[in-house]
Amino acid sequence: QLTPSSFLRIGQLSNVDLNEDIHELQTELPRQRPNEIPHNEKLLSLKYESLDYDNSENQLFLEEERRINHAAFRTVEIKRWVICAMIGILTGLVACFIDIVVENLAGLKYRVVKDNIDKFTAKGGLSFSLLLWATLNASVVMVGSVIVAFIEPVAAGSGIPQIKCYLNGVKIPHVVRLKTLVIKVCGVILSVVGGLAVGKEGPMIHSGAVIAAGISQGRSTSLKRDFKIFEYFRRDTEKRDFVSAGAAAGVSAAFGAPVGGVLFSLEEGASFWNQFLTWRIFFASMISTFTLNSVLSVYHGNAWDLSSPGLINFGRFDSEKMGYTIQEIPIFIFMGVVGGILGALFNALNYWLTMFRIRYIHRPCLQVVEAMLVAAVTATVGFVMIYCSRDCQPIQGSSVAYPLQLFCADGEYNSMATAFFNTPEKSVVNLFHDPPGSYNPMTLGMFTLMYFFLACWTYGLTVSAGVFIPSLLIGAAWGRLFGISLSYLTKGSIWADPGKYALMGAAAQLGGIVRMTLSLTVIMMEATGNVTYGFPIMLVLMTAKIVGDYFVEGLYDMHIQLQSVPFLHWEAPVTSHSLTAREVMSTPVTCLRRIERVGTVVDILSDTSSNHNGFPVVESNPDTTQVAGLRGLILRSQLIVLLKHKVFVERANLSLVQRRLKLKDFRDAYPRFPPIQSIHVSQDERECMIDLSEFMNPSPYTVPQEASLPRVFKLALGLRHLVVVDNRNEVVGMVTRKDLARYRLGKEGLEELSLAQT
């Protein structure tokens, strides 16, 4: 008997509690939970199921498709566009909500702390201010962490690795639920307000994906409501396409970059793509940016202006004084190398930290304590740095939101405070646009060093948070430092503008951490509103990716691998031609006969040791002894619907009199088919016969057992089950995603991962 809490934890993708299920199953035996969970990256988890991207073309499906005429197909196409528009509008509104709430809450917090600091600077006793700041941060983050750790662990992190897995075809429990969306939005507001080194951009991608999955299905399982619309789209293939649109709409709301959103979905997200999809996804992204822009413009009081296309606006870069010359190209390439090395260092540190978290910090209460600790440390580091900094700048003509005077003269403010005493988005914009001379090089150096380690420690906490903005901030800080040192060397030459190098540094750092090239170039160009820098940004990102890939893989891929998800890449490993289907397939295969006893079906489905999801159907000749040839494939979910509706007859030769099942019956049960244990089959019914002919897929994909692994791989990328047959068309094995994901290119060549139940 699994309790609900164990199901909640199964889907956790930031810190998987490996011992939870075993613990729940053995509650009657009092035993201590282990303090350490053995975990290594050479495992592949068996708990992730595949999604079904292959339509089962059984008789019911073909009859329905033949009935639909041209006009009906047009209606379906229009519905797709309507859904994309709705995805865009809702994603834009969610982004507005996050932005407005964060702005007000963070503003309130900074005003309270600033008044307190100003008060105590005059009469001594600044330790009270530190205490106030750290306590405010820790308590806000505590709430944000509690809801994630105890209610919906899948909402932790940025959600990009999870969505990437979903679009690749891995079913990650709870990833596109309404509950996840609510926790994600509240969690990201609380973690940004709590002053952690995080951004609110990454989670927008996850939020968009959840919105898309919800709208396209026309119902919510969390609310137990079915709106009876869009029923045609209740299958994995359609849902996947809409989720890619949702992810793109999320990017475009976050950065005001609709083209960047489409490219992000193409480059990072989708493993499946077609021409029509591009246009619809672009439409969703446009609508999303426009919605955000209109609502925020009204909110800021200039309704006709449309001046805030994204959650983060890097501000306009002035082309006249910010061009670049040919001698700067080597400098940009060098910055790319630095970004790649720093990004690789960030990822390597985060890798060891995440391993430690999976092993030791696997209980929700420990995760909450860790998040509070990080929040308090972040505030303390910020306070100490501001306190020790003697970098004073005149307030005249500066655009600082909360200028802290501290020990500066009247009319001056502490410039370290613009970096720490602010939300990360504002700090990035300040580093890009503050006039030369606003920052002391010492200030920037110390800030980069501290923030690098804080951001690294923060990513992977049990809070909803993105890594985009912190990476940009680290990069902008060292890029500006680089620009200042260049202008020292060139005696203040006009082209060595620190803001330009801050932009390049930000691109290099982010590229070095997440390894995106195409989409990131376009996002940076759209967010700065400047095409002039397209080429340098591209150079910097390419260099950062090449250098970073030489050391370790990108942050998202690394987290996918740490979770032991059976993720399939575009191509099979290069050296795998020597392997054939016979060596990778799973055997023996549980087959069903075309006309089968109900008892047999129930026993096969109830067998927990072989929890299969697809069964080849073979010809049922009772008299012959040889193995019968393959006739089709039927899914566990279909069998469960058949048993639930009791589609069986007492003897094999009787024809079925009851009402026929429609495709709608299968769609209504999607996506959460009831478990076999909940279906009651009496002793008499067990003796009845069930005819699978019209429900099975009569033309499943098959491969001969001599096929090489790369060939099998190409076919199996979108399939859940690939049947392996011999030359007499008899079933000899079955290839699923896990059989292929086991093989991967390691340091020494092709390596095989071991499979783990957890």
List keywords for this structure.
three-stranded mixed sheet, disordered N terminus, 8% strand, 758 residues, 54% helix, 18 strands, elongated, single chain, CBS-domain, Clc chloride channel, mainly alpha
Overall form: elongated
**CATH architecture classification of the domain at 326-362 and 423-560:** Orthogonal Bundle
Strand order of the largest sheet: 8-10-11
Rg, please?
A: 28 Å
- Number of helical regions: 28
**Structural class per helix/strand content?**
mainly alpha
Q: What's the CATH H-level homologous superfamily of the domain at 326-362 and 423-560? A: Clc chloride channel
Please give the CATH class of the domain at 326-362 and 423-560. Answer: Mainly Alpha
CATH fold-level label of the domain at 326-362 and 423-560: Clc chloride channel
Protein name: Chloride channel protein
GO molecular function: chloride channel activity; chloride:proton antiporter activity
Organism: Manacus vitellinus (golden-collared manakin)
Domain CBS: 696-752
